[in-house]
């Protein structure tokens, strides 16, 4: 009998395995896209404000449990989902915010908000759906995750739009303690669908809430000299404080104080005894943010002093800037390039918007990317506008971006 030659087939390399995972996940996203769009429209029609996202949490939880995933509720709302081994050699987290804004929607969409005074005008319904899509796309590959010692943690975070926001609750509960890197997406209606904006370093600004309350002896407008003319004093603070800050703070800090609410009095011939001005104080520089409080107090006091009014200042530090880690941005570049396309990566500027994902980045290195949601050639909307319309093709782009980034970050383990 002649000898037989048995051909040895080499096992696939790690790179080949990851390439196949990318292909499998991409195909899964194609199959999931109709369902994800339906989920997003359901969430969009039923928005819920911060720490009241009961229906949103239940809707997402039920779908995840149906897939056999481990779901941990967060008090009072929100979810944490873990894939892979309980004690991995590397764990990557991805976060989505799930709350809406206190606005009445005016988009006219057939799935517009049915809840008066609440709508998803910041795209959090898209963020939530992208994270759900990531969970569903990764679920069939948990055996590979366990074999490799890799874990993925999905953070469905409540209350991003309030201060202090839900990121504090997740950090305080320890959900970031055993995480190596954390990532997030944010809708960008100024960029076309299919584009993902990336930036190393600060990508958002520090944001505080500032309220100034003045009190004094009111009276008749014919005799301001025997009153403490509170309205005039308040106007002086409102106009003078931004100007004074611009001369006392390094302009490279990008500081901007904008008042959103000013109120004093009810009648044109009465000097009121109380008045308030509330606004946001934003800046690009984290060091200035850490030290600005005493200067604000000092300037308000000096501006109001000539009028003899009493001053009460409520300066609440909101969020620091989101500062993207260079290594994490490199994984985003890899993820977008491999799963969306090399031409999908675009530069993005630092904005004066605030984002409480920054608190997570003070605990764990990571990065936030901007997901283009504008229909090419279509209308450019703005966030926090009640007529915001999102091109829903961005959902699949978002899932692919997150999946590619997670894979890139996991396999970076030496």
Automatic annotation (TrEMBL):
Residue ranges annotated for the Peptidase M20 dimerisation domain, each copy included: 211-305
Superkingdom: Bacteria
Family annotation (InterPro entries): Amidohydrolase (IPR017439), Bact_exopeptidase_dim_dom (IPR036264), Peptidase_M20 (IPR002933), Peptidase_M20_dimer (IPR011650)
PANTHER family according to UniProt: METALLOPEPTIDASE, PUTATIVE (AFU_ORTHOLOGUE AFUA_6G09600)-RELATED, PEPTIDASE M20 FAMILY MEMBER
Protein name per UniProt: Amidohydrolase
Source organism of this protein record: Arsenicicoccus bolidensis
Highest classification ranks of the organism: Bacteria, Bacillati, Actinomycetota, Actinomycetes, Micrococcales
């Amino acid at each position: 009998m002649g000898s037989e030659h048995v051909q040895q087939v080499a096992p696939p390399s790690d790179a080949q395995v990851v390439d196949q995972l990318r292909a499998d996940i991409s195909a899964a996203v194609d199959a999931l896209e109709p369902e994800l769009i339906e989920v997003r429209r359901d969430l969009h029609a039923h928005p819920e404000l911060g720490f009241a996202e009961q229906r949103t949490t239940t809707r997402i939880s039920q779908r995840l449990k149906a897939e056999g995933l481990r779901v941990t509720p967060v008090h009072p709302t929100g979810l944490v989902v873990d894939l892979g081994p309980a004690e991995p050699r590397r764990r990557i987290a991805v976060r989505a915010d799930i709350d809406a804004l206190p606005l009445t929607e005016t988009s006219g969409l057939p799935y517009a908000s049915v809840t008066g005074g609440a709508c998803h005008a910041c795209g959090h319904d898209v963020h939530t759906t992208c994270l759900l899509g990531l969970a569903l796309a990764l679920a069939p590959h948990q055996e590979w995750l366990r074999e490799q010692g890799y874990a993925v943690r999905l953070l469905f975070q409540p209350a991003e739009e309030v201060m202090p926001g839900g990121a504090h609750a997740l950090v305080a509960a320890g959900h970031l303690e055993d995480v190596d890197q954390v990532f997030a997406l944010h809708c960008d209606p100024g960029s076309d669908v299919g584009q993902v904006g990336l930036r190393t370093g600060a990508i958002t600004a520090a944001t505080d809430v500032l309220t100034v309350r003045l009190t004094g002896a009111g009276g008749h407008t014919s005799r301001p000299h025997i009153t403490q003319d509170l309205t005039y004093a308040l106007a002086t603070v409102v106009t003078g404080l931004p100007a004074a800050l611009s001369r006392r703070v390094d302009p490279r800090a990008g500081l901007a104080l904008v008042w959103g609410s000013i109120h004093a009095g009810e009648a044109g011939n009465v000097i009121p005894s109380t008045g308030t001005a509330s606004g946001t104080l934003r800046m690009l520089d984290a060091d200035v943010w850490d030290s600005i409080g005493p200067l604000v107090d000092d300037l308000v006091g000096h501006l109001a002093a000539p009028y003899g009014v009493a001053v009460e200042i409520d300066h609440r530090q909101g969020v620091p800037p989101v500062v993207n880690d260079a290594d994490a941005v490199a994984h985003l570049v890899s993820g977008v390039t491999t799963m969306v396309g090399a031409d999908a990566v675009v530069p993005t500027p630092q904005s004066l918007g605030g984002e409480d994902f920054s608190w997570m980045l003070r605990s764990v290195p990571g990065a936030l990317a901007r997901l283009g949601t504008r229909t090419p050639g279509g209308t450019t909307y703005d966030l926090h506008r009640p007529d915001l319309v999102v091109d829903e093709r961005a959902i699949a782009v978002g899932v692919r971006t997150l999946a590619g980034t997670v894979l890139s970050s996991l396999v970076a383990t030496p």
